[in-house]
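Hi D.,

Good news: the full-assembly prediction came through. Inputs first.
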Amino acid sequence: MFELIRQLVNLYGATGREAGVADAVEALVRDHVDSIRRDALGNLICEKRGTDPDGKRIMLSAHMDHIGFIVVAVEKEGYLRVMPVGGVGLAVSRTRHVSFQNGVQGVIVQEPVREGETPAMKHMFIDIGAADEAEALSMISLGDVAVYANDCFRLGEHRVAAPAMDDRVACALLVSVMQALPKTRNTVIAVFSTQEEVGCRGAKTAAYSVDPDIGIALDVTAHGDTPETKLPAIRLGEGAAVKIMDRGSISNPDLVRDLLAAGERAGVKTQREVLPFGGTDAMAMQVSRSGVIAGTVSIPCRYVHSACEVIDLRDVEAARALLLEYLK
Amino acid sequence: MDILNYLQGMAVQHGPSGHEAEVSGWLKARFEPLCDSVTVDPLYNVIALKKATAPTKDGSPAPRVMLAAHQDEIALMVADILPDGSLRMGQVGGVDPRILPASTVTVHATGGRDGTVKLLGVVGSTPPHLLNAADREHNYKREDLFVDLGMPVEKVRAQVRVGDLITLNGPATPLLNDRCAAKTMDDRACVACLLEAAERLQKMSHICDIYFVATSQEEVGSKGAAVAAHAIDPDLAVALDVTHATIPQSRPDTTVPLDAPAATYGPFVQHKLLERLKKAARDHGIKLNTEHAERFTYTDLDNIQIAREGVPCVLIDLPLKYMHTTVELLDMNVIRECGRLLAHFLGDLDEGWNEALWS
Amino acid sequence: MELKQLCELQGISGREELVRAAIYDECVRILGRENVTIDRVGNVIAHKQGRDADAPHVMVSAHMDEVGLMVISATDEGLLHVRPIGGIDPRVLVSKRVKVGYAVPEKDGKPAQEPLNGVIGAMAIHQQTAEDRKRVLPIDQLYVDIGAKDKDEALEKAPAGTPITFDTAFTPFGDGRILARALDDRIGCYNMLRLLTCDVRGDTDFVFTCQEEVGCRGAAGAAFRLMPDVGIALEGTTANDMGDTPAVHHVCNVGQGTTVSFMDNASIANPELFKDMLALAEREGIPHQVKMSVSGGNEGGTMQRTGAGVRTCVLSVPCRYIHSPSTVCAASDIEAQFRLAKAFLEK
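Then the structure:
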């Protein structure tokens, strides 16, 4: 599982620019599904047909995109001015190594602010080592998106840190589930979605075309087990989290019950997740067409939306076993 | 219909947004005798169809009318169990933390062996003896408050789990002048208007197919109404929701009097349909105030209007005081008047309803 | 008399008539009319002769009154302006139900009276500005709404001076806990009524006082009249043992026995009496705890400084959310207070 996660987190795939991730995922699942297509928003939709024509359509969604910084202007001196794509935090971004799709590397820096002024994204710039505007523009173009640079490493025995763990860890999970999933009576549609970080835009159109009965998002969730962080009551290494609710959606209570029961049958640890903020592709699936039974299986993750998102491999394995049991 | 009896019943039903199974079952039973079919969809919308009782004169299909009032309620949720057995709270919808100190709640505990068990809980407050002047100057935040189940932590853990729902307690309390206070008047009092209308329509003729919908998840973004409207694909819709009645601290431009229904005007509301609604009120001697919404109405209307190819909508407002508290107060006679207005609006709807709608 | 019955009687400070009548009848039933007096300020004093004429004369007190509200006027829209009677944090009033006026049973040909329902609302969260959310609503912006249409109707139904109590049903819940209003200090009244039958050593006067919540005004006169050697107050006190409050700030813990106070804002307990009380509890195996705070004040202080001075000690039942519509205590602590007081009076 670690190797698969490492392969996927190391790929460039900013929000709106997910094609490279989709290519890699497609190669990994091609032999394990009946059909693969991409839609207008770049969602990768992989369908494994069920044996029973009256079976249910179950959509699983993991998003491929990764928050970043979009270049909006170039200073005469060659520095890049940026705006956020998705929820990037200022405090965790200062003096960070970032990289572009074409391999250009940079450092994102905050300029000094006047006393009493609140630092904002307008005070940030990226230094790509260019001497002036012309050189900068020969390296990148306006509209290019920088993301936190690759940096995947193991943390202790069971844990892994990397940027883009949100949500490539779930992409890896979904790839691995599709690879292992036998034919079942239900049709299972794995959607590797796009643009989740700007409002679940990919999942919205995917859910409309897939028209599922049940939708399950696979995503990371926050933690409550580090100093002065109390909520949510989620601990790394304590198992897969089944979402009860977050800001974006309230999971269907029967689905929550079924997912937890599947975890129990599979003999893995689960946690009940109540997140006071955030949202996942479930919010888009739930309100698609005439309504979909929707929920989320989460991987507990520390420091979400930073360059060092930390997960525990045992939680991923628990989620995998839970999902395989549920889908069986 | 006996409004007080309905309110006393609805106020003890629990149906936080996304968890409307209990209240939807209760409401389904209330619509069944009045309608041709009643279904509950995957999001717990209760959809009750009363078919046209008269054919259209020109043989055109019966217009489909969707009436929407939401059944869900704001609530709290167990976010964590502390070492002393008290519960930290999350919320479902916008709960005003100011109403919580010293209130009682119902914890829907799912961790035991006997299915869901309802436990009485008390939300604590610090006694005034221990407060200093600075403490008294700020309102409690939800994070500062805990639910006390009166049990040691082992017993709490054996029964309660993170994610269990916590509902507010607020039984229907009759007051002077046919007024009543209860929790969840927002918006189950408007569902009462639907039932009142359905009852009156038993003796009236109407050319439209009427879909009474008790919607779900309004308090978290009007999700039930969105999917119900997609499923029903109505030709026109009436949303009903509560609005703010005048109280001493309120601004006169954003509140309406307590003693009559109101109708909203503004860009989201189809102005010709609104005229039709006003005419029904005039023709049948129903007092109808108006209020404005310059953009969002923050009701089910906002999502119904843009379902599928779009739906012309009007909005009826039921005034109440102290919204989102456990003492939401209204005049029960206004519920009757809303029901009467709705029934007449539907009964008077003729084949030409959509002629010149946009001219 | 059951605690439930006592708690269901309404009686804010100065308007204890319903509680007084019930307690008077009960005292008379147990001790005979000749031993029960209602004094000039409205305290009920029940006298019991001791078996040892040389033993100290003891006064035991518990107060009949509860905190509540009082109507002072009404707005043009028919909402009641109220003022707190006793210490009430206005923040606990928002979104609560109240009873306006008292439930008076039929008596002497006068018809029974029913109180009016009332609610205390506040501006909806939707209409609050960020400033509003921070601002605590003061009492003059909290109104009791009885549904009246205008000022005249409101004041006709609830004239100025009408007492208002919280509308909270007496409810046992959880693991031996009780939720009610007025537990402070109907608990003490309840235990005192039970103590009337015990075998007291010295002459003992049981004083059911009035107006404790507005400054212990009843107890002062009673103590002056009785001039006891020892004064014991049976009270409800503040427990702050909730959630993540550090243990050092708990004051006392619900379910861990009656508290014995070394000091509060009104009095310092007589040190020998305090020590004797703890030793007695220890010896008798009665659950007890020392109140770990100097806060609150009660009739202990009033008795202590009467006449030439009185040795006093306060035994309390820990109550969470005291002075709010939802006070919570443990039944076992009520029992512990009773047992310790009984042991003290009989020893």
